Amino acid sequence: MTTSELSVLTSARLLQIYYAATLLFVVLDYFLHINVRLAFLEAWPEMRAIYYLLCFVCLGLILWRPGWSLWIGTIESLLALSLLIITMGVRVMTVSEQMLQTGSGLVRISEIMNFMIVGGAAWIAYMRGIQAIRKESGIRW
Length: 141
Fold this sequence. Notes:
Blueprint: H1 3-20, H2 22-30, H3 45-64, H4 69-93, H5 97-102, H6 109-137
Helix pairs in contact: 1-3, 3-4, 4-6
């Protein structure tokens, strides 16, 4: 087995673990009210549920077709990064009079920290995925 084959196998295994951990994140979120993975979707519970479902679909696809792991992880990390930026941007740009008077609904420091941690992880995952796709396909951008 070559080094690149081992790297793809290791990455696929890490993605399987990451997506399988969705079950743990669902339990933390819905039963213990600790939203770690999708804090940026806190205000949109329907979107959170859809995103958790998407993570389970990604797990199923990776188990069914391990060769797709690279593409699935890259696309999902881009989606997570995009949703994170959009939802945080909407929160920051839509400040109401009531929010200014009461201070409720403003972005909290814990949300900013989550934005930085999740955003950083999603960015790294996306960039590593893009680099691996370039290397695998021989495309030079």
